[in-house]
Amino acid sequence: MKPVKIAMLSLTHGHTRKYYQSLKDNPKLEWVAVHAETETEERNFLKYGYDIPCYLDEKEMFDKHPGIEAVVMASANIKHLSQFRECAKRGIHVLSMKIPTFDPDEYTEIEELVEKAGIVCQVELEMHYNPVVTRLYEIIAKKELGKISTINATNITLSPMWAFPWQGVPEDSYGKRVPLKKGDNRFRGGALSDHPHIFDLIRWLTNNDFEYIYAEEGPNIRQDIEVEDNLIVNGKMKNGISFLLDPSWSRLEERLEVPGPGWEIFPKRMEVNVCIAGEKGVMLIDCYGPNVFHNGRPNDRYTVQYTYFDPWIGLMDEFVECIRNKKTPKINLKWHRKTIEAMNACYESISTGKVIYL
Amino acid sequence: MQNMWKNICHGLNIFKSEIAITEINMKKDNKDIEKALTGLLEKYNIIPPQPFRLYKDSNPDVINLLPGYVFADLKLEINQIPLLAWRVRRKFVELKKIVEDSVIENACLFRFCCMGSKDKWSLSSLLYREMDLLEFIGNGKIISVQAVITGEQASNVILRLDTNALCSIEAGIQMPPDTPLIDRHEIIAQRGVASDLVVDTNVPQSSIYCYTNEGEFRYTDTDMELYGFDDLQIDHIRSAFQVLKNPDLSKQWQLQHKHLVNLVRMVFESDSKREKMILN
Predict the structure, then answer these.
(1) Interface test with B, best of A158, A159, A234 (most B CBs within 10 A)
(2) ipTM attached to this prediction
């Protein structure tokens, strides 16, 4: 199979660094260029020492590398629509970050652009390529717990907004400045906007969709930011399975401009834990464990050092497979739309204080 | 004195109520726990105001000291003292102190989870326990509940304390029979996090893990004065001891019991109406 010529856009997304190794190592890919949105991003990229040309203008990059077939759209949510327009115009396949857009009309436009251009658009939900989650899916499919009653899941992290400031700017993250609720000085676009995985996961595991959803926000752990940093969500799927989801930024971080060792204040910077109860028993799952631990440099703090298998390997393999064999990715725009709708329902529930039916 | 207590506890029939079943599968039975309580009372020279039982007894002259959820469906009789037994467990006392003494500052989020087996627990009993722990550790009162329940087996509740902290309680009774209670109590604050689980784990630790040809055995012994009793029995004995030592406590706990019974009712009502219930 001929390697796919691929580039990266913007380099401002929190997952940007995750792709460097995949793009370099995957023999099915030929990494040809990157576009950095700012000189700071360019500097940070150049420090890694990859022999890949870096451009500050995305059109210049596309013009100088007409062979680019695909991009990793590693940008702020607010940038996605315009970058989709450019890619569709040029017939370039897109690996989109987790949130193509929260705006339903923009989402429709992106779907139409992709459809008309005949390009592949895969949404980056890397947990589908996690071996623990794969095992979990198999256990559920084999009905080892019998009829499921409830699925509870956390997607708890530190806040990446000091390294990726757009995640703390309502317009850049949510797409516009919408107050969280009446009388609240916070706006949509924080922890919830960063954490679609568990909303997607529960749909995937149950092969079902949300019936109704309720969400409530807590007082912010970080007092000096203008987006929400913690909330709890519950509700029911159409098949009666209840759920409780925690998509919070409830692990404090050192406010580093470039993520790296010493980022975490709490020993563990991220978790996706799932608890499933059914008529035959209960299952507890740590999707990113077990791990190793140290209390060494830089802060002499007890720290979880992750050991999980790199899910971006499987994710990129599927992307290439879809491009070369004209297949539709598992996480395509149509599938993902209902996840985005559920997240918007959470914001609406916070705003109204009521259950939202989907 | 010693003889008096021996007489009170002598010749008892074990009343196999729901709570008795909860604890009957242990090495030590109700007779043992009453004997242990008697021993503690003697050791510390505590004279109870009247005879007592640690199980249901219809004699109105005998104080019934049982975990509060046992009385949840009943009109509380004057001789029935609902024990908030979990409040005396050391790990919860320490979590409460961590919050109260501002070791962690400005708690924002309480994440509680409690999973038991239906041979020992009901969903209501777990909710009763966890909501009391929330108010106890959180040093506040619950002002709203929003719940989803599946088949009276699993509930996911979002609550708010009057401190404005947001809270979640996951409670379920779908663990296999005889499984010990698995619980988690995590408090996330603007400064610091406190929890009864080790970082990067999902289940409580034991003190001893013994791997033998006969299988794996675990032991967790937490009380030298009550050595050999399990955690629930220890909570029962210690909380009864506190009430007998400090009779004012029984009035406080009776009031709290009524509040908790109302909260449990509101959880089910919230699920049924699909609405957040606000406490007046």
Answers:
(1) A234
(2) 0.89
